[in-house]
Design brief:
By secondary structure, this protein is an all-alpha fold. Helix content is 82%, strand content 0%. The chain folds into two domains: 29-156 and 177-221, Up-down Bundle (Growth Hormone, Chain: A), CATH 1.20.1250; 224-425, MFS general substrate transporter like domains (Growth Hormone, Chain: A, Up-down Bundle), CATH 1.20.1250.20. The protein is globular, with a radius of gyration of 23 Å.
């Protein structure tokens, strides 16, 4: 035994993988045709979605609506997701996921295309935009679980981490430049053209999703819809590590959104002198998102539970910095660190869920997970105003930071969460070989 320990100690680490090999491994999923189509379709769709909020806001104002009308349009987009998300999870587990994604995009393309036509003709009313928003929200309830599960189908296990990281990098890059482009497009051409662009990206994405062409076996529906819903809940509840982390998200997501998105601009106006410096803070966060996704692309941590909790805890940094009225450079650094931690944790968490949950249950698990984090958000927005008026904005932000820290630390007291790990990382040759094999099997 003593000799074996000595040999292990003197043997040293395994062969180091060079940066060139890591870069080839990171880009390997793009060699797989179904993933390449999926990636391109998602990027197209995100470019439209980045423009849509600004276009929708100015469209409502242009036709005579006010803040109340805009609030109604935004609320109606969220409500169908809450109501239909579990239904979408069952449907995505029953039917080919690519088909569900195609029809979700087609529905949104038709709804937004009709809204754009009404705006162009000058006949649009607020209720038209409310209806469009509700239809797209309902379609999103079906698209989200399907999109979350399809990566498992289009790339081999060895390449899923890189596949998730590439999607996250692209999404975050669009987030950085999309709103600015949207503002220019609305200013130059009007909100109708911007909403029309979003409709066009939905249509183009639907065409790309339709070409993925995975060879799916026959759909087996042995139980009723409610039975599938119950089975999904039973499976979700049986995975302690999963529901514990969803509870963590249910606490952190509304607190973060209230602290950063709702109270953050108020803090910027009151303590930073206006939108200029607050915009710099927001840029720090979006830059951190891009940096974090790039880090996740090149780094594959094994102990995912600890990394996810650390990334979650990093969201407390900007709230604590605002509560302490830290200098602007410190606040920008805090938001950049939060963005980096969030992007890394989301990427590695996606890979773990895809690895541990069987494909025929994955969309239902994702729908329960998303719903658990989405439902508390409206209550957080409703409580934020009274609480901040009662105790002050800085005290509210300090309390939010404390809640996030506790939510990040407490799950680590559970051994199952601390031990959450992905399977052993393969050498880069295995990743490249695996993606080549999937690409060869995919229909052309």
């Amino acid at each position: 035994m003593r000799k074996a320990r000595l040999l292990n100690r003197t043997a040293g680490p395994g062969p180091r993988i060079g940066w060139a090999a890591r870069v080839r491994e990171a880009g390997a999923p793009l060699a797989v045709r179904p993933y390449r189509l999926h990636f391109t379709a998602r990027v197209l769709s995100w470019t439209g979605s980045a423009v849509s909020p600004i276009a929708l806001a100015f469209a409502v104002l242009h036709i005579g609506g006010g803040a109340g009308a805009l609030g109604l349009v935004l609320a109606v987009s969220v409500a169908p997701q809450i109501l239909l998300l579990l239904v979408g999870g069952v449907v995505a587990d029953r039917l080919p996921r690519a088909r569900v994604m195609v029809w979700s995009n087609v529905v949104c393309a038709l709804a937004e295309g009709l809204a754009a036509l009404l705006l162009w003709s000058g006949t649009a009313r607020v209720w038209h935009l409310v209806l469009m928003s509700g239809i797209c929200g309902a379609a999103s309830a079906f698209f989200t679980p399907a999109a979350g599960g399809i990566v498992k189908e289009v790339v081999p296990p060895e390449a899923r981490h890189a596949a998730n990281a590439l999607l996250k990098i692209a999404q975050n890059l669009v987030k950085v430049g999309g709103p600015a482009i949207g503002g220019v497009l609305v200013a130059a051409s009007g909100s109708a053209w911007a909403i029309g662009w979003d409709a066009a990206t939905f249509a183009a994405s639907a065409l790309l999703f339709a070409r993925i062409g995975l060879r799916s076996g026959p759909v087996k529906v042995k139980t009723g819809f409610l039975a599938d819903l119950r089975d999904g809940w039973t499976d979700f509840r049986s995975r302690r590590w999963l529901w514990v982390m969803v509870v963590q998200g249910a606490l952190v997501v509304p607190v973060w959104l209230v602290g950063y998105q709702l109270l953050g601009p108020v803090y910027g106006a009151r303590f930073l002198g206006g939108a200029g410096l607050w915009g710099l803070v927001v840029s720090g966060f979006t830059g951190g998102l891009v940096a974090g996704a790039a880090v996740a692309l090149m780094w594959r941590p094994r102990l995912v539970g600890r990394v996810v909790c650390a990334g979650t805890g990093s969201l407390a940094l900007p709230l604590a910095a605002m509560a302490a009225t830290a200098p602007v450079p410190v606040l920008v650094a805090a938001t950049a660190a939060a963005g980096t931690g969030l992007a890394v944790s989301m990427t590695v968490w996606s890979g773990l869920v895809q690895e541990r949950i069987p494909a025929d249950r994955l969309s239902r698990a994702l729908s329960y997970s998303t719903l658990g984090q989405l439902v508390p958000v409206p209550f957080g927005y409703l409580l934020a105003g009274p609480i901040s008026r009662a105790v002050g904005i800085r005290a509210t932000l300090a309390g939010g930071a404390l809640v996030i820290v506790l939510a990040a630390v407490v799950p680590l007291l559970i051994r199952q969460v601390r031990a959450l790990a992905v399977a052993g990382q393969p050498a880069h040759e295995s990743v490249l070989a695996g993606t080549a094999a999937v690409s060869a099997r995919a229909p052309r």
